[in-house]
Amino acid sequence: MNKTGKLYAIGVGPGAGDLMTLRSLRLMQSLDVIAIPEKNKGQADSFAWAIAQQELDTESMRGEALYLWFPMTRDVSITVPAWEAAAEALVSRLQAGLDVGFITEGDPSVFSTWAYLQEELAERLPNLQVEVVPAVSSITAVPAATTIPLADGEERFCVVPATYGIEMLPRLIEEFDTLILIKAGRMVKPLIEMLEPMGLLHCATYVSHATGENQQVYRDLREVPEEHRYFAMVQLSIRGRKGILRRGQQ
Ligand SMILES: C[S@@+](CC[C@H](N)C(=O)[O-])C[C@H]1O[C@@H](n2cnc3c(N)ncnc32)[C@H](O)[C@@H]1O
After folding, report:
1. What is the pLDDT of residues 42-56, one digit of tens each?
2. Cα(112) to centroid of ligand 1, in Å?
3. Structural domain harbouring 106
4. What is the CATH number of the domain that holds 159?
5. Whose Cα sits closest to atom 22 in ligand 1?
6. Rounded to two decimals, what is the model's pTM?
């Protein structure tokens, strides 16, 4: 009987091909199967794969490129069967002794379908060997684009999905020096409405496609054009308030 293959979660970074790690590239070149998440069934429209292909020589890849459909909807009658089919496709290959790499945009541990897949596969193959290959995440790519550090000294930062509960922001603003609002593309208007009366609009910077060729940075949320409100984060930086240097001067 074949030994079960090993499963890798491979982060490919936030957009720029040359920000991929050597380890990610080497694994994509050499594994038996590279599993690629696609948004629309049969469309091969994978952002992660587009990033990988900037540096990966796909002609000389050893393995199979396997597209897995992860629909972009919250309708469980669509997502559950699709995600189960994706898990089964991987199980059959792993059981055949093949080593599989599942690629993710950014880092696999940060808001990625990988979290779901890992749970599903652990249920089906309890002794499965797993390795997570970390990568540059949007959480650090965005501050690189704004050139505003996340935190220093005694400062604290947090990461929250903007699409779920921006009513939490006033409380978080009290507690943290920097807030990273992930999935902020469609939340620009409600964010302006919340931050303007608080006098904090000038602390917000909007970044889409950080490090990619089409990177956009807006230091005034009111200037973000509708068509750019996609694949974006807002960095809310209120750091000067209690940074360590200021404390030292008190
Ligand atoms: C499903 S999450 C994936 C996060 C990814 N695993 C990571 O480590 O960055 C997708 C969200 O991350 C943010 N994001 C990812 N890459 C980005 C980039 N290059 N520039 C700006 N935001 C990005 C956007 O808010 C996007 O809606």
Report:
1. 888 899 999 999 999
2. 9
3. 6-133
4. 3.30.950.10
5. 232
6. 0.93
